[in-house]
Specification:
Elements lengths: L4 H21 L2 H40 L3 E4 L10 H9 L4 E7 L1 E8 L9 E10 L1 H4 L9 E4 L9 E5 H4 L19 E6 L4 E10 L4 H4 L2 E4 H8 L7 E6 L5 H11 L5 E4 L6 H38 L1 H9 L4 H37 L2 E3 L2 E3 L5 H27 L3 H6 L1
Parallel strand pairs: 4-9, 6-8
Antiparallel strand pairs: 1-10, 1-11, 2-10, 3-4, 3-7, 5-8, 6-9, 7-8, 12-13
Length: 414
């Protein structure tokens, strides 16, 4: 029998009336408990998803702001340094969307730290020493904002050095055992470069971004490194900061068109190593937590609807006996289940947006990649809401369909 719009509308009205009566005359404690469980399940899904999105977002932000910026230009495969750096940087800065760029040297060396200067407790660490031009660097990275001890380098500094916390040790360093175990600003450190040059520096500052890849660096000034390497107007890498108005790949094409052909041009994502693997792990964890949360909410609603249909089996049998359509009864329980889900989702969104998000904005969660706040992603919210409603529909349909399929006489007489 084909349904028309009027029949569908009448069925909906009757179903909604049954829902209204079931909710208003039902056990209020059961109603509140069911909504509370669905609310907590939804908050759990959103919270886990948001904290992981926040962690991923923070890692990406740290990589771009404190590690390698947006784009890195490296020497050609058979070259050790980029040549004609000053001219190249001038060209790069003229490209639309480029905020600024800076160049760095990199040289192998051994750091020697003797806190008592008696030769009895010397700490050594072989590492890659980099150079920065402080005036250029502050336009590309934010390291100057993370100084926790001492001061940032100045362009004229020749006997000063800047250490990340993972090199100096302390300040909650993740690699404390392989660090210098407590070097402090104002103390002296000796660097023996790979070409045999030996220099003694005073630690001018220690920075802590809370991002290990960025904190595993040692910096001297560009003029000092050029003196050590006996080079000029060259670089081991050029960092390019963009305004992110277009994807990084577009800027790479622009750099190629500008004439940078022999050099290697890479985006920041290619330098974060294990961090990029975390995104896949986090996505898997998010999927598991979401599934468990939906399962808890679905089972809770299923149990509530199942108990309600069993307790009202006689009433359902009478309704069928007087001509009530099965689909109306089933729809009424589906709507009841959707009501629980919608109420739980609404309450969950209010709690997340007006309590949890503001709290974590003021009190970020400390993680090995930095201070992390909740990051709500509209796509994840939409998927979670849709999934909650879908699960509630299934949880409402199955028990109501099972009971309405029973024989009318058996339903009435039990």
């Amino acid at each position: 029998m084909q349904l028309n719009i009027k029949d569908i509308w009448n069925d909906l009205r009757v179903s909604l009336f049954l829902v209204y009566k079931a909710i208003t005359r039902g056990n209020k404690f059961t109603l509140i408990l069911t909504i509370l469980v669905t609310t907590l399940a939804f908050i759990n899904i959103i919270f886990i998803s948001s904290i992981m999105n926040g962690a991923i977002s923070k890692a990406y932000q740290q990589a771009k702001e404190n590690y390698v910026s947006n784009i890195v230009v490296l020497p050609g495969i058979d070259e050790k340094y980029i040549s004609q750096v000053s001219q190249l940087k001038t060209q790069i800065n003229t490209l639309p969307g480029v905020i600024s760029c800076c160049s760095r040297y990199a040289a192998q060396g051994v750091l020697r730290y003797d806190p008592d200067k008696d030769g009895n407790d010397v700490k050594e660490k072989a590492w890659n020493i980099k150079s920065i031009n402080p005036e250029e660097e502050v336009k590309v990275t934010n390291l100057q904002n993370y100084i926790v001890e001492g001061r940032y380098l100045e362009e004229t500094d020749r006997d000063q050095i800047l250490l990340g916390r993972e090199i100096s040790g302390g300040y909650g360093a993740s690699f404390e055992l392989s660090s210098l175990k407590g070097a402090r600003a104002g103390e002296e450190i000796t660097v023996i470069y790979g070409n045999g040059v030996k220099r003694t520096y005073t630690i001018k500052g220690i920075y802590n971004t809370m991002f290990p890849l960025a904190d595993l660096n040692v910096y001297v000034t560009e003029k000092e490194m050029e003196s050590v390497l006996q080079l000029h107007n060259r670089a081991s890498e050029i960092l390019v900061k963009t305004d992110a108005s277009v994807p990084e790949k577009v800027y790479i094409e622009r750099l190629r068109q500008m004439g940078i052909e022999n050099e290697q041009i890479n985006i920041w994502f290619e330098f974060i190593g294990y961090i990029s693997g975390l995104t896949q792990t986090f996505d898997t964890i998010k999927g598991i937590i979401t599934f468990i949360g939906l399962l808890v909410a679905g089972i809770t609603i299923f149990i509530v609807i199942f108990i309600a249909t069993v307790n009202r089996r006689r009433q359902i049998g009478i309704l069928k006996a007087i001509g009530m359509k099965e689909r109306i009864i089933i729809m009424s329980y589906i709507f009841q289940a959707v009501f629980y889900a919608l109420f739980g989702v609404t309450a969950g969104l209010l709690i997340v947006n007006f309590l949890l998000v503001p709290y974590f904005m003021r009190h970020p969660f400390p993680m090995p990649i930095g201070l992390v706040s909740l990051a709500l992603v509209n796509r994840d919210l939409a998927v979670s809401v849709f999934s909650m409603i879908l699960v509630s529909i299934v949880a409402g349909f199955i028990p109501s369909w099972m009971v309405t399929r029973q024989n009318i006489i058996k339903a009435i007489w039990g």
